[in-house]
Each structure stands twice: as structure tokens, then as C-alpha cells.
Amino acid sequence: MTERKPLGVSFESWIDRQIREATERGEFDDLPGAGKPIPGQGKPHDEMWWIKQKMRAENLSFPLPGTLALRKEAEEARAEALGARTEAEARRIVEEMNVKIRDSYRKPLSGPPVVQPLIDVDEVAAEWRALHPVAERKPAPQKDPKDPKDREDPKDPKQPKRAKRSLLRWFGRR
To answer: Cβ distance 65 to 110 under 8 Å?
Structure first.
């Protein structure tokens, strides 16, 4: 807690004395930003500077109107689909985006009237195949049920487990 200003001493001389004493004690050494220019120096005043600074620090983008946000999301989904590990995953990403686009046709979105076309799944799949050429694969060897090595062992943890069936299957329900 700081001490109170003594009576009869002007504010300026009292503050100057506190700053001088703190400097002598080294309290202003190694402050963050020491020796760096003041940020925003020479730029015009912006009332929203602190919001923009926070969004840059958090790596956020400014909120877009609904129609433009949908267009940006569609571009990102297409790029994500092209970078997917499998063609099935790429198709799933595009189909999920197409569901969002169809929903936007049914309800109005904020922003300028922009109609986002559906993404062609087959076109993206063809691009994905062009970007991810598959090496010649050898077919898996056929298992011989008579060979004891190829038989399924229910106690083997590497074997996939069979799904349990419901007893109701006998009654025509599933």
C-alpha cells in the first residue's frame, strides 16, 4: 500500500519523489515491453483497439454475417475434405457440409443475399483420389478354415468381437 501524501507538499513533488525512489530501488527494471516502441504509436485512434488486440492474441476472426460465414465454412470443409486420410472421410465431410447448406435454403440467414451452391461430392472425391494416389496393393491371403492357424479363437484379444444378437430376432423384431 502506498503512503499518503503529506500535508503541505504538492502532488507533483510528492509523485516525483516516489518515482525517483522506486527507480533507485530498481523496481522499474525488467518491465515487460522495456526498450520496445509503444504499440499503436503514430496510428489513428481506434475506439475498438482493445477488442482487435484481444482477437489477434486469441487468434480469432471477426464474426461474419450468416451467409458469408456459411460460404467460408464451405471453403474450409472442401479444403479439409481434400486433406482427409480416406476417401470415405472426405465424402462424409462434404455430405455434412451439404446438409448445412440445405438447411440454409430452408431458413433465412443474416447478411447479404448469397446462395451457396452444394458441393459436388463426386468432384471432391475425384480431386481427393488425384491428390492421394494408391500404390498397388496385394490382395489379402485367403484364410483356410481347416488350418488351425487361421481359425478364429474367441479368447484371442486381437480377434474382433462379434456383435451380440437380440433374442427378439426369433419373433420378427429387430
So the answer is: yes
Closest CA to 66 of 113, 99, 112, 109: 109
For the chain, percent helix, then strand, then coil, each to nearest 5?
A: 45, 0, 55
Residue 81, Cβ density class (10 Å: 0-12 exposed, 13-18 middle, ≥19 buried): buried
**Residue from 86, 83, 102, 94 nearest 122 by CA:** 94
Alpha-carbon span 150 to 45, nearest angstrom? 76
pLDDT exceeds cutoff 50 at 174 = no
Match 438447411 to its residue by C-alpha cell.
Answer: 103
Answer whether residue 137 shows pLDDT above 50.
Answer: no
pLDDT (tens digit, 9 = 90+) per residue, 42-80?
888 888 888 888 888 888 777 778 888 899 999 999 999
Q: Residue 78 CB: number of other CB atoms within 10 A?
A: 19
The Cα-based distances of 23 to 10, 16, 17, 27 in angstroms read 20, 11, 10, 6
Q: Round to whole Å and give the CA distance between 168 and 89.
A: 34
pTM above 0.90, yes or no: no
